Amino acid sequence: MKKILVADDEMAIRLLYSEELKEEGYEVYLAANGREALEIVDKIPLDLVILDIKMPEMDGIEALRQIKERRPGLPVLLSTAYGEYRQDFATWASDEYLVKSSDLEDLKSVVKRYLKD
Amino acid sequence: MAAERTGFLTQMVEVLTSTVSFGERLNNMVHLLARHLKVDLALYFALDKARETLVLQISSAGPIPPHLRLEYPLGQGLVGETAVTRKTRLVHRHQTGVLEANAALAKLHPAFHTLAAFPVADDNFLYGVLILMDREDRAFTPTERQSVLLACLMLAGTLRQAIVQEEAKKRIAELSVLFEVGKALSSTVELEVLLERIVGTTAKVITARGAALHIIDKATGEARVSSRYGQIPPVCPALPEMLPSSGAPGEPPHYEGQAVDAEGRTHFCLAVPLTFKGPLMGTLGVYDKLSPAGEFLPFDPENRQLLYTMAGVVVNAIENALTYQQVEDLAERNERMVENLTTLQEIYRALLTTVQTGKLLDMVLQGLTQEQGLGFDRALVLLVDEATMTLKGGKGARRTPALLRSPLSEALLQPLSQEISLADWQIPLRADQGPLAQAVLMKRPYHYHQAQKRPGLPAALARKYTAQELYVVPLIVKDRATGVLVVDNQDSGRPLSTEVLGVLQMFAAQAALVLENAHLYSTIEANNRELLLMRERMLESDRLAALSSLASGMAHEIRNPLVSIGGFARRISKLVEEKSPLRGYVEVIQEEVTRLEKLLREILDFTGENLSYYGDHELAKLIDDTLVLVQRDLEASKIKVVKEYAGLPRLHCDDRQMKQVFYNLFQNALQAMPGGGTLTIRTYPLEKPDGLYEAVAIADTGGGIPLEVLHNIFNPFFSTKDYGTGLGLAIAQRIISRHYGQIEVNNEMGKGVTFIISLPVAKYCLVKETGQSAVPASALHAPRG
């Protein structure tokens, strides 16, 4: 079973994402900020990470940088309420940049694309 | 008999002590003797100065006609023998050989029978020989002989006295000459006056009709000074030609000559060298010695000696006078220099009081034309216009005597009262455009004088402005000619000296500096104005940004809960049975959330989330704007910037993003060349298979990128300490690809790196040409994140 980490500071979003992804047949890990996300990345042999950008303690951009340093091959999707971070070169290291929407079909199809094999 | 002898002796003593001249005395003595002895003829032969020949000097028969001026070399005839033996002789005509040996004497007294010779000598010196002739055969009595011997002694005494007196006279004359010369020499240190006195005195003491002095420079042969006095016969050689001749062996060098003029008069000249210690030499010459009767006489060795003495004495005085003149010249030059510098300083001080170019031009012209300033009759200032490569009319002015009274500092501030309009002047900066263009091109002053063969003003200009002589001095700042000053003295006709040129050049340097300062100042002012404008614009956009960020902040806050609400509503709708009334409620929630999300996207689009700054921009301008940001760093690293911009059309792009690209590439170049180098920026059109592009090549000389890192340079987060941060290039690449362009790297190890950016030319440019309505390329391919 593919392992996905979802990091978001909003509990409601974490719950929504995990329910939806579990339904798709993935094993889902949750983190409330970048620091927690990194701890999980270090422990679990994950297959994909979904990061919110605006998070307390450590934001998604810093987490993205460190994840790419530790596990360069691990796909990282940014899922954020902010479209303008797209302009920030630091987000360019991510594999996808997705603006949050209540319709999760987009997100799920992208995840599927990265984890299809 | 005894009484007669006493009478004779008394008469002799009377003659001896008389005050008549020595010649007269000798003459009288010879006559007395002849009368006393009752001989037909008494003759006196004088030994000449060379002591080789005896010359007939006195005859009791009266003055000697020239054809009877007898001469006997020592040892010849009775006269010559007596001079050698110094013994009295008495011979008679009938004696063998007498007539033959004394044939010349016989001409004076053809009937003589008795011939007696007496040496005229004192203890150690022979003066001459006394000859007595008579037609009778006579034998002189001892008393008579004694009388003759006594007379001879008296003659000798008179002659010795004469010699002594002549010596004394000569000495006195020489002393008086020296006195005269000394008086002349010590009376002045003015060279010209001194020389006049020297030649005057020389002519006077030698009783010459004319005298001249000439001094030349030994090395160059150039005449330094000369002075003349009295009449100098034109037939005589010029003084400088007399110089190289030298006298006979053992004699000091001199020139002695004579020449006959058209009227048949013989002229004489004598010259001796003047020997100076320094690099000079000269000649002192005299012409035509005058006899009391006004005849021209040749110069004798005594004159020569005298001239030598004079020459020796005057040399020192001339040297002193020359030194004095030099010192005086120097002092005068220093004084003028100080005066000039004071004037320049005063003008400079005035020039520093303003930074307005127009005012400065007026002051410069006032400084050039004011009597208290540099005082030229006319002055022009023209400035280089770099855009058109021409010299353009600045301003011109004439000298204004009206302002003469006021001090220079005030006069400089007056408006120009006699301005010369140069408004329509425009001189291309080419070598064939005359002195003004030449001075700028060569960065050297130009001196034009009608008499010279140098080219003058071109015909078109000469109609507006003519001058016999003018100086053109370039205004040079940091080895760049920014204009010219032109001055002349056309109205007054005063010549333009090289000294004036020196002062003018100093003035030009100052003028150039203050004009350049004024130019820089106005540039800074313009820049400041632009900065101020930009700041205002930025403030305005800041206000807009603040408003939009408030809106966007709220929108974002709403988006997260909406995602949860909508997301869970979807989940619920999946769980609710199709027929349940709940289904409809949940769908309402879903639809409303979707509507709100759509609204949000629209708001965020408007408030700048996806705001872009696309417009039509000139690449060169964007590059230059960006260069300003790194200007200081470039200068600090001693990096030379070479720009080669092709005139390209405007390009549709996001100017902020493009500036970011250039900025990142410049930063890259800066880091690659910490020790200086050249940054070459080139823009050019580029044709690719898919259309026209505008290209920018940015090349550094930083040694290139190591091969092992080359393939990574565009990766985000890739960084090496040696070469850049890595981030900059990644951003650049992203921005360029958003503009549908390409960025390539051309790496030459050991030399440097060239980044080549190519951006497609907006298609509407082509559309426009075919006459269709213009559609911006951004509308066709609107870049969206």
Task: Explain what you see.
The complex is a heterodimer of chains A (117) and B (785). Chain A is an alpha/beta fold and 117 residues long. Chain A is built from four helices and five strands, in the order E-H-E-H-E-H-E-E-H. Chain A has a five-stranded parallel beta sheet, sandwiched between helices. In chain A, helix 2 runs parallel beside helix 3. The N and C termini of chain A lie close together (11 Å). The model of chain A has no long low-confidence stretch (mean pLDDT 90). Chain B is an alpha+beta fold. Chain B has five domains: 167 residues, GAF domain (Beta-Lactamase); 139 residues, 2-Layer Sandwich (Beta-Lactamase); 145 residues, GAF domain (Beta-Lactamase, 2-Layer Sandwich); 72 residues; 167 residues, Heat Shock Protein 90, CATH 3.30.565. Helices cover 46% and strands 23% of the residues of chain B. Chain B contains 21 helices and 26 strands. In chain B, the strands form five sheets. In chain B, strands 13, 14, 15, 16, 17, 18 and 19 form a seven-stranded antiparallel beta sheet that branches. Chain B has a six-stranded antiparallel beta sheet with strand order 3-2-1-6-5-4, sandwiched between helices. In chain B, strands 7, 8, 9, 10, 11 and 12 form a six-stranded antiparallel beta sheet that branches. Chain B is rod-shaped and about 210 Å long. The interface between A and B is medium-sized, with 25 and 30 residues.
